[in-house]
């Protein structure tokens, strides 16, 4: 199925190909390449608006995930009954916010990859609301990013590494 990667912002120049290639590999690692996935790149104003509406938090953020299949257990692959249900959901990347948070020695596309992987884990039922669920999500992100590194040579760390 397809990975739809849309850039609907103009604040930060963005080449979609590197992110698309990496996220296709991440989908393969997670075993969800048969599912549709939307990744939408937005600016601070848009991500703040979405964050305010859906989370009642009136500030920009790095990533918001909206699962198609709700109430999945962490790491559970959906088992759709109908072809139209082969959809994981949508990830909104606050690319302007991510760019502003990048440290001097960090590659922007590496950070986008890590953030999108984090968002994809949320679509698969992972959360970080408690230390136990954070640990589970951290381990999954670490495993996926290590495998991505084996396949591409990248050395990436999980987004959730400093939460608890």
UniProtKB/TrEMBL annotation:
* Annotated transmembrane regions: none
Q: What PROSITE patterns does the record tag this protein with? A: UPF0054
InterPro entries for this protein = MetalPrtase_cat_dom_sf_prd, YbeY, YbeY_CS
Q: Which cofactor does it need?
A: Zn(2+)
> In this record, what's one Pfam family?
YbeY
What biological process terms from GO does the record include? rRNA processing
**Keyword flag rRNA-binding:** no
Which terms does the record give in the GO molecular function aspect?
A: endonuclease activity; metal ion binding; metalloendopeptidase activity
| Source superkingdom | Eukaryota
Sorted alphabetically, the keyword list is: Endonuclease, Hydrolase, Metal-binding, Nuclease, Zinc
Gene3D superfamilies on file: Metalloproteases ('zincins'), catalytic domain
Q: Which family does it belong to?
A: Belongs to the endoribonuclease YbeY family.
Q: What does this protein do?
A: Single strand-specific metallo-endoribonuclease involved in rRNA maturation.
The name this protein carries in UniProt is Endoribonuclease YbeY
């Amino acid at each position: 199925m397809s990975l739809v990667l849309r850039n609907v912002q103009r604040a930060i120049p963005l080449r979609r190909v590197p992110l698309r290639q990496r996220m296709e590999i991440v989908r393969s690692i997670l075993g969800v390449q048969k599912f549709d996935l939307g990744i939408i790149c937005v600016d601070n104003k848009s991500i703040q608006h979405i964050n305010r509406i859906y989370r009642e938090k009136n500030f920009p953020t790095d990533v918001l995930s909206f699962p198609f299949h709700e109430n999945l257990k962490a790491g559970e692959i959906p088992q759709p009954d109908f072809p139209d249900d082969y959809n994981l959901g949508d990830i909104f990347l606050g690319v302007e916010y991510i760019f502003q948070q990048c440290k001097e020695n960090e590659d922007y596309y590496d950070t986008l990859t890590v953030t999108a992987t984090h968002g994809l884990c949320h679509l698969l039922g992972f959360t970080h609301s408690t230390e136990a669920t954070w640990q589970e999500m951290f381990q999954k992100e670490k495993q996926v990013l290590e495998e991505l590194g084996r396949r591409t040579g990248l050395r990436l760390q999980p987004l959730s590494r400093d939460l608890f």
